[in-house]
Design a protein that fits this description.
Helix content is about 25%, strand content about 25%. It has about 170 residues and is of the alpha+beta class.
Length: about 170
């Protein structure tokens, strides 16, 4: 009997698997989110004084998670928030925020999904992904957050899903 594959459009394909240490992954993991998916909206402008920390950018991502041949799918929804300027790291450029967000999302997805056990609940995998992703992103960009999509006025970016499909004529 084949183990179900866990697929999520947020993961490193074989590139990451080839670089990882330890036992081979239980599940093949495909897809790769790119920096272009992180279309951040500035929700809090940074202070005028360059030396003062502050400012915030956020985006909501809706990523499809599918479980191998079972046909089971869900949408993992999460908000990524990053500071614009910190007292530790200084100014965080939009490009750096996008690169770090994509890189850490791919690493977190691979870590969680490649070791998922057959029959794992997709909602549980989504929760574990968000927790792992936040820890990884905070290491890269101090003060970052990953959680539920709550901020008003930010863009929702689909990844592997269609949002509000047009009605058929």
């Amino acid at each position: 009997m084949l183990r179900p594959q866990v697929l999520l459009g947020l993961t490193l394909a074989l590139l990451w698997a080839g670089c990882s240490h330890g036992p081979p992954p239980i599940n093949p993991v495909t897809g790769r989110i790119t920096p272009k998916h992180f279309r951040f909206t500035t929700t809090v402008k940074p202070p005028r004084k360059q030396e003062e920390p502050g400012g915030w950018r956020a985006v909501c991502i809706h990523a499809q998670v599918s479980q191998g041949d079972s046909g089971a799918t869900t949408v993992c929804k999460f908000e990524v928030g990053v500071p614009i300027r910190t007292s530790i790291q200084g100014e965080v450029s939009l490009e750096d925020a996008r690169e770090a967000s994509a890189d850490m999302a791919n690493r977190a997805a691979f870590q969680v999904l490649s070791t998922a056990h057959p029959g794992s609940m997709l909602s549980e995998l989504c929760s574990r992904f968000k927790e792992t992703y936040e820890l990884m992103l905070k290491e890269k960009l101090k003060g970052s957050r990953v959680g539920e999509c709550r901020s008003l006025g930010i863009e929702t970016v689909p990844f592997g899903v269609v949002l509000n499909p047009a009605p058929a004529h």
